[in-house]
Amino acid sequence: LVQSINHDGELSFVNKTWINILGYSETEAYSLSIDSYVHAESLDKFKEYLNSSWKGKTNYEILLTLRAKNGSKVYVEGAMFPRIENDLVVSVTGFFSDVSRRKEAEENQRNAAATATFYIDLMGHDLRQSLQVMMTGMDILEPAVLTSETRYMFELISEAIDTAEGIIRKVLSTRGLLEEPLQAVDLREAVISVIDTVSSRNPKVIVNSTIEVDEAKIQGDNYLPILLTNITENAFSQSKDSERHVWIALKDSLDGFQFIVEDDGPGIANDRKESLFDPNRRFGGVGIHQSMKIAEKYGGTIGVSDRINGDYTQGAKFKIFIPRAA
Asked: What pTM did the predictor assign?
């Protein structure tokens, strides 16, 4: 959308795109006052930019809400600058792009994030209450009914409760994922920190790490450690009981970086690989799907293959690609 405003605050030029999007005829456009086509929520800001441009300043990255003839909002982004003749500002010109669809998508995402957060909090609260009732009941029953035959069942129930509590904690750990803005973060520093943390929890696992980059800037957020930890801990848990090994690497890869984690566990059969990341089947557990969503937010991908090509029984290889920050 292109428009020019004269000293009287009237439109002296609008292009066909401006007319088509806002729905005014050319004759109507040239008779409009500023508050007729600039929405009230942006009117003060528009006048500030206009006055600034009359003083000779160019204003970039402007976000405004215009009002179409039918009353609907039109979100635009662009710049306003002075048109100068003989050292005098004779008009103010604006170049704008219609970003209404983007704004609508952002609003939908915010609403989805708010809804997801609500249900996550509700689920966490209600499930924890139920788990607490189960734990209290077990404490009451244990002295009365615990025998050599029932001890094993009590241990299974206790482990199941601990697992459920762990799942709740994991789900709640990414409750703000959709709302967290992206920023430049160092993938290399995050990888090194996660390797140190997970290794200290698993001292019996032999870790072979290779960091092939000096710096790895990506567009990420505070959930990056969760992505890396989920994949790394999965490898540690899959390794065999004797001579357990995990291989971790961070490599440069064209337009981004590859974070690779391999283990010597039982591996993943080919038919299971295909459904591992399927959200409708969830064979990978909460951590895998959680990691997939985080990687997707960063513009990245997650894949799985065999550590030894053609022999899945020798362990799995997870590979995460994350684009380099522009």
From this structure: 0.59
